[in-house]
């Protein structure tokens, strides 16, 4: 394996999978926290990705690159399919979606009959949002830091059906996650039908107490919809930990599955009464597959999710989280020392994981991210909202500690020290 690494600095698909499986076996029993700072271990994980050599990617939150094993499987399936699509794609490849469903269900401890495979979190969440019967005046609670497309979805229902959307504000950084439970608790009225919130807030990386908010919703007979776009395969959890009604996620973010893959979890007792976004016949009423009636689509994408799941499982959910947190702590602790700097999320393990957003009094996030890209070849995400602003920094498992230090040097060079 090491001879290969010296010939080129990345591994091809099968080699990459074999290496990660080998590393998993070789480090069995090593605590996740200990491995988090082991650069030799993560250097080998890094070799499973082909990276842009010029630009340091610290926006893995938007959408993540896939390891070579995933990309190879995806491309191979596309080529195979293209030779005779109606037969090879529909007959040979499409049925493997059942393996994807079963593997997701096994790894996140859910009944496969509750897991639909979609194309992204937007689709999953809109299935949840549009499929509920709501009357004029019925209230939906969400926050002003939830994802704009999901808010637009509720707003369309407001305009069309006269439901009422309430977006709750909360200050950042959050000091006590229990405050987020109280935020919803205090806003519940007899008209509240739905609580919709993000497990990880895209603006700041804030982790919400999902279990407690779902329990609160259930105790009031309110439906819970969890936006897991930024949480799935990032924050370790099992569906059996939560009692949510719906959970929607993209698989092309933290799972590093092919771009155009998502997941929808629907609690079993909600399935029959929930309308599909694209129509399905009544015979499918109780079948989770009614949410997959989307017409012709490439089987290659969802099938190569299997390789992404294998990769994730071999790294290990806890190890991955510990490494991602280690990298986040490294830059966040250092840059927080700059005058006028403020992290917009707490660094506690139950409040932030892989990414966070940092505000600087002396420079606006657009100017800072432009300068980082133009002068230092580093990509971050500017976040600007009426109530917060900063740069969002989201490394991945292939990011090295040296790259994090280079990013910190660059920020220190760009950020003015005094207003
Ligand atoms: C919190 C949140 N929800 C939903 C989405 C939508 O995800 P996708 O574009 O993969 O559908 C995103 C995308 O960044 C997000 O951050």
Ligand kinds: pyridoxal-5'-phosphate
Low-confidence stretches: 1-7
First CA to last CA: what distance?
Answer: 52 Å
Main beta-sheet annotation: 7 strands, mixed
**Computed CA radius of gyration, to the nearest angstrom:** 22 Å
Mean pLDDT metric: 95
Task: Please work out how many helical segments DSSP would assign.
Answer: 16
| Biggest sheet: strand arrangement | 2-8-7-6-5-3-4
Query: Helix amount, in percent?
Result: 40-55%
* Class computed from helices, strands and strand pairing: alpha/beta
Element order: H for helix, E for strand: HHHHEHHHEHEHEHEHEEEHHHEEHEEEH
- Strand fraction band? 5-15%
Count every beta strand, where a strand is a DSSP E run of 2 or more residues.
Answer: 13
Task: Tell the overall outline.
Answer: globular
Describe the structure.
This protein is of the alpha/beta class. The chain has 16 helices and 13 strands. The chain has helices at 2-7, 13-26, 32-35, 39-46, 68-82, 85-93, 97-107, 121-130, 148-161, 178-187, 210-219, 268-271, 299-315, 317-335, 365-376, 401-414; strands spanning 56-57, 115-118, 139-143, 164-168, 192-198, 223-227, 246-250, 262-266, 341-343, 356-360, 378-379, 381-385, 388-393. The strands form 3 sheets. A 7-stranded mixed β-sheet has the order 2-8-7-6-5-3-4, with helices on both faces. A 4-stranded antiparallel β-sheet has the order 9-10-13-12, covered by helices on one side. Strands 1-11 form a two-stranded parallel sheet. Strand 5, helix 11 (210-219) and strand 6 form a beta-alpha-beta unit. Helix 5 runs antiparallel to helix 13, helix 7 packs parallel to helix 13 and helix 8 (121-130) packs parallel to helix 9 (148-161). The longest helix is centred in the last third of the chain and has 19 residues, at 317-335. Pyridoxal-5'-phosphate is lined by residues 120-122, 147, 149-150, 198, 202, 227, 229-230, 250.
């Amino acid at each position: 394996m090491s001879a290969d690494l010296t010939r080129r600095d990345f591994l091809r698909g099968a080699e990459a999978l074999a290496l990660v499986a080998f590393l998993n076996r070789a480090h069995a029993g090593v605590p996740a926290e200990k491995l988090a700072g082991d650069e030799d271990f993560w250097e080998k994980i890094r070799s499973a990705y082909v990276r842009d050599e010029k630009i340091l990617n610290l926006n893995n939150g938007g959408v993540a690159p896939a390891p070579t094993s995933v990309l190879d499987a995806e491309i191979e399936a596309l080529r195979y399919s293209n030779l005779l699509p109606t037969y090879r794609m529909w007959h040979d490849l499409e049925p493997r979606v059942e393996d994807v469903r079963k593997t997701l269900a096994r790894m996140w401890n859910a009944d496969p009959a509750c897991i639909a495979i979609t194309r992204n979190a937007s689709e999953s969440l809109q299935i949840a949002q549009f499929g509920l019967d709501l009357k004029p005046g019925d209230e939906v609670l969400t926050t002003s830091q939830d994802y704009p497309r999901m808010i637009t979805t509720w707003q369309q229902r407001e305009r069309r059906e006269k439901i009422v959307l309430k977006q709750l504000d909360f200050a950042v950084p959050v000091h006590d996650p229990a405050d987020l439970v109280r935020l919803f608790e205090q806003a519940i009225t007899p008209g509240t039908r739905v609580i919709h919130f993000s497990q990880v807030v895209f603006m700041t990386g804030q982790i919400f107490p999902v279990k407690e908010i779902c329990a609160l919703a259930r105790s009031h007979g309110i439906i819970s919809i969890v936006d897991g776009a930024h949480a799935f395969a990032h924050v370790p959890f099992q569906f059996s930990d939560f009692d949510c009604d719906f959970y929607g996620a993209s698989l092309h973010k933290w799972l590093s599955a092919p771009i155009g893959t998502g997941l929808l979890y629907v609690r079993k007792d909600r399935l029959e009464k929930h309308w599909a976004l694209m129509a399905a016949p009544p015979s499918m009423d109780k079948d989770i597959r009614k949410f997959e009636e989307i017409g012709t689509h490439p089987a290659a994408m969802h099938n190569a999710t299997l390789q992404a799941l294998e990769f994730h499982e071999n790294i290990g959910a806890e190890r991955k989280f510990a490494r991602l947190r280690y990298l986040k702590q490294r830059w966040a602790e250092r840059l927080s020392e700059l005058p006028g700097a403020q992290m917009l999320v707490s660094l506690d393990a139950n409040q932030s994981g892989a990414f966070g957003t940092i505000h600087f009094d002396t420079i606006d996030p657009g100017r800072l991210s432009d300068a980082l890209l133009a002068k230092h070849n580093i990509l971050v995400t500017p976040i600007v909202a009426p109530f917060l602003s900063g740069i969002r920094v989201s490394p991945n498992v292939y990011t090295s500690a040296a790259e994090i230090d280079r990013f910190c040097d660059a920020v220190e060079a760009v950020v003015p020290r005094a207003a």
